[in-house]
Amino acid sequence: MMKHLLFIVLTFISLSTYAQVGIGTENPRATLDVVATNRTGSLTNVEGILIPRVSRQRAQSMLNVEKSTLVFIDDVSSGTPDNAMATEGFYYFTGTRWQNVSETSIAAPPKFFYMPSVVLPTATTDTRIVDTTNTDYTYVGGEYIVNLYNLYKNQFTTPIISSITDPTNPSLPVGTVVTPNDTLESLVKPATSYHYFVTYADPNVFEEIKLDANGILKYKVKSNSIIRTGTFMNIVIKNK
Fold first, then answer.
1. Strand pairing partners for 114?
2. Which residue segment(s) compose the domain that 137 sits in?
3. Residue span of the signal peptide, if any (predicted)?
4. Number of domains the chain is built from
5. Which range scores top for mean pLDDT: 103-107, 164-168, 180-184, 230-234?
6. Alpha carbon separation from 56 to 97, 177, 197, 216 (Å, rounded)
7. Looking at the structure, do residues 122 and 218 belong to the same domain, yes or no?
8. 3-class secondary structure for the chain?
9. Which tens digits make up the pLDDT trace of 30-80?
10. Distance in angstroms (rounded) separating the CA atoms of residues 89 and 71
11. Do 54 and 152 have their domain in common?
12. What are phi and psi of 210, to 5 degrees?
């Protein structure tokens, strides 16, 4: 009896220390290594791994799902309507939602984009400067300070109107559920995830322009400068 117990204990120790499983191979090179029986040739037998196939309703009903869980949704006629789960395909769990694998690989974020249109004050009487509750615009020691990142973030998270949230849009199916991935909000990252550039500024108006890593713009306005149609500043935001 003691010999049998000793053998079982040693077996478990061996498994826990090796912790690699091979299918089709005696020498696995990873935690799980699956090797095709016939890697080449014209045989007609099927090789591969079948990922669990579930309906959209089944996926939406799962609880306590671990990040990176992979399923194949083969039925989108059931469950709660969701633009992010509208087609059959492979989906992985991000920790908060199911993400279509093909959309992830295709929809790469832009490398750079222009700062959304904002007003840059050129006078201390500007309402944005006078309003002390508006911390995105301040004036200190002859220098205008504008929080570009916050202004960009606010525009992308709360647009005035959107085609996917406008209830008068006839193309929206009844019961459409809008997720963060469907909106501009999914493009917003922390302030330090970007580089900020001023590519043009009216030289007759702006001077001593500065930009920091948090998207804070500082500038001074030349005395007796004339604000005209061509008085503007181009700002580019680049993903790191």
1. 236
2. 112-239
3. 1-19
4. 2
5. 230-234
6. 12, 14, 44, 44
7. yes
8. CHHHHHHHHHHHHHHHHHCCEEECCCCCCCCEEECCCCCCCCCCCCCCCCCCEEEHHHHHHCCCCCCCCEEEEEECCCCCCCHHHCCCEEEEECCCCEEEHHHHHHCCCCCEEECCCCCCCCCCCCHHHHCCCCCCEEEECCEEEEEHHHHHHHHHHCCCCCCCCCCCCCCCCCCCCCCHHHCHHHHCCCHHHEEEEEEEECCCCEEEEEECCCCEEEEEECCCCCCCCCCCEEEEEEEC
9. 888 888 888 898 989 898 889 999 999 999 999 999 999 999 999 999 998
10. 8
11. no
12. -135, 150
Do 170 and 85 belong to one domain? no
**What is d(CA 15, CA 143) in angstroms, rounded to the nearest whole number?**
67
In the numeric block, which tokens belong to residue 229?
């149609």
Which tokens hold the place of 45? 């037998």
Residue 227 lies in a domain: yes
Domain boundary among 60, 80, 100: 100
Would residue 32 count as lying in a domain? no
CA–CA dist 125, 164 (Å, integer):
38
Kindly give, in sequence order, each residue whose CB lies less than 8 Å from that of residue 90, ignoring residues fewer than 6 positions away: 51, 70, 71, 72, 100, 101, 102
User: Do β-strands 89-93 and 233-239 pair in parallel, antiparallel, or remain unpaired?
Assistant: unpaired
pLDDT one-digit tens code per residue, 179-228: 555 677 777 889 999 999 999 999 999 999 999 999 999 999 999 898 88
Structure tokens at 148: 């570009």
